[in-house]
């Protein structure tokens, strides 16, 4: 199978849902071996997920033979789409030599050098296998470096599944507490009281309240973690003044500022930190730096990263091992992916993002829908309300008022049935395998899907 970026969808799209489809039957089979039928809750779609069979360029084919423009791109990991020739060649060369080994390799050094050269704040880097691991070890290094216990994160921010940070991602009004001193709300069962006792929740974009919280806990605050582009809030770009304040307060109080760039690194040559002009103490990476293979990384100031070094005493302050850390296949794929994602590629992909957001915004205006389009760089999302929500509570309220659950599920279903795969329910993550014709096809599908919603003819979710 081979697609060119601008090719029309060649196969017919099987209407979703179809309970006799191969995907539906595969889901029934999966439930007998996997709890809930899957290993990733983020991919759980009702009444069943679409099962992938193959992909090439910006398109993916499911096990029923339907072909789609892939706007999920494995939640941003596939920055160059599927099976990019240069990444395949790099992986083939590496697999001819080594797949997995209990020794370091040159390609680990090469990818580390690439990140250090590319990102001004990264003087040393250490590899793991997921963004969750990167955040976990970044927090651990910050605690070891400062000798303090607490970490702070913004309400509504997602930082993987590490207990101390996997809280208050999407709290409900009955649990979230006072706006200026938010409660720590556990997102899952299985958390101990102790695992979240040292976590502080900050109200994003509220400068005064956040300053007070940092001052109150500052003597025992090891780190502040922030994603400058909040994925769980429709790619909300955190206010520049708020980020500047975080940098000022953390620097003044000896607190480690951690930028979570696992998602946002794709928006600029140096990630979000380059776009906002702030140099964090530590950064975490994943997704795009692995070329589609499992990866995570933490990097930053040499003096903080020294917490991981076993030199000169033969034992590190912070232990960090893992069988597949810096595995050579991920290193080779990541090096190829970052070499491809140069300044020209970043600019071209951001231009495609601009074209998509402008097209979607124009579509909403033409249809008279009081919705909004949000995003930055190569990321976009459609939201069923018009006014910007600058914090999690406003975002939650706007989504609830718009009955977003059923509305956005109908939009998602309409897009799928027109050959476009957004994330559930309505985010578009672009790849360099796309071109302007592909972007225009996404806008055309959105126009039809949104038109059905406006006319009341959208397929019930």
- Number of H- or I-type helical stretches: 14
* Secondary structural class: alpha/beta
The overall average pLDDT, rounded, is 95
- State the name of the first-level CATH class of the largest domain: Alpha Beta
At CATH level 3, the topology of the largest domain is: Aspartate Aminotransferase, domain 2
Helix content: 25-40%
Oligomer: single chain
What strand order characterises the main sheet? 4-14-13-12-9-5-8
Largest sheet: 7 strands, mixed
Low-confidence stretches: 1-10
Shape: globular
Give keywords.
Aspartate Aminotransferase, domain 1; alpha/beta; 14 helices; disordered N terminus; 7-stranded mixed sheet; 37% helix; 461 residues; Aspartate Aminotransferase, domain 2; 4-stranded mixed sheet; 15% strand
Can you walk through the features of this model?
This protein is of the alpha/beta class and 461 residues long. It folds into two domains: 22-70 and 343-455, Aspartate Aminotransferase, domain 1 (Alpha-Beta Complex); 85-340, Aspartate Aminotransferase, domain 2, CATH 3.40.640. It has helices spanning 22-30, 85-97, 106-118, 131-146, 193-196, 207-217, 240-253, 271-276, 302-305, 328-340, 343-367, 392-401, 404-416, 436-455, and strands spanning 52-56, 59-62, 67-70, 124-128, 150-154, 177-178, 181-182, 199-202, 221-226, 229-230, 236-237, 256-260, 282-286, 296-300, 372-376, 379-383, 420-421, 427-429. The strands form five sheets. The protein has a seven-stranded mixed beta sheet, with helices on both faces. A hairpin with a 2-residue loop joins β1 and β2. The longest helix is centred in the C-terminal third of the chain and has 25 residues, at 343-367.
């Amino acid at each position: 199978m081979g697609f060119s970026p601008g090719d029309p969808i060649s196969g017919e799209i099987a209407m979703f849902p179809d309970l006799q489809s191969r995907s539906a039957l595969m889901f029934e089979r999966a439930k007998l071996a996997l709890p809930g039928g899957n290993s990733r809750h983020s991919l759980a779609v009702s009444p069943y997920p679409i099962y992938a069979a193959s992909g090439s360029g910006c398109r993916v084919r499911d096990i029923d033979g339907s072909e789609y423009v892939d706007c999920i791109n494995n939640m941003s990991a596939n920055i160059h789409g599927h099976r990019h020739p240069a990444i395949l060649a790099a992986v083939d060369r590496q697999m001819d030599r080594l797949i997995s080994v209990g020794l370091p390799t040159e390609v680990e050094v090469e990818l580390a050098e690439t990140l250090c050269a590319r990102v001004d704040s990264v003087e040393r880097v250490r590899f793991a296998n997921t963004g969750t691991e990167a955040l976990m070890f970044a927090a651990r290094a910050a605690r070891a470096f400062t000798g303090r216990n607490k970490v702070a994160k913004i309400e509504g921010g997602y930082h993987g599944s590490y207990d101390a940070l996997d809280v208050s991602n999407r709290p409900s009004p009955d649990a979230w507490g006072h706006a200026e001193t938010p409660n720590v709300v556990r997102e899952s069962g299985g958390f101990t009281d102790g695992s979240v006792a040292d976590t502080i929740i900050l109200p994003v974009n509220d400068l005064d309240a956040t300053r007070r919280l940092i001052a109150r806990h500052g003597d025992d605050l090891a780190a502040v973690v922030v994603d400058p582009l909040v994925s769980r809030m429709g790619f909300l770009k955190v206010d520049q003044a708020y980020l500047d304040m975080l940098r000022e307060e953390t620097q003044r109080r000896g607190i480690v500022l951690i930028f979570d760039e696992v998602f946002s690194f794709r928006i600029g040559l140096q990630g979000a930190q380059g776009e906002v002009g702030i140099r964090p103490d530590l950064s975490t990476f994943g997704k795009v730096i692995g070329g589609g293979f499992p990866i995570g990384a933490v990097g930053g100031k040499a003096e903080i990263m020294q917490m991981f070094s076993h030199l000169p005493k033969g034992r590190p302050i912070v232990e960090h091992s893992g069988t597949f850390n810096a595995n050579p296949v991920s290193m080779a794929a990541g090096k190829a992916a970052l070499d491809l994602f140069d300044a020209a590629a970043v600019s071209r992909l951001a231009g495609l993002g601009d074209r998509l957001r402008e097209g979607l915004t124009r579509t909403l205006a033409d249809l008279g829908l009081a919705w909004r389009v949000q995003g930055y760089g190569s990321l976009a999302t459609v939201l069923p309300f018009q006014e910007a929500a600058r914090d999690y509570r406003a975002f939650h309220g706007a989504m609830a008022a718009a009955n977003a659950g059923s509305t956005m599920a109908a939009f998602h279903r309409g897009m799928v049935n027109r050959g476009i795969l957004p994330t559930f329910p309505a985010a578009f993550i672009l790849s360099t395998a796309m071109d302007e014709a592909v972007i225009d096809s996404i806008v055309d599908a959105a126009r039809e899907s949104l038109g059905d919603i406006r006319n009341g003819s959208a397929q019930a979710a």
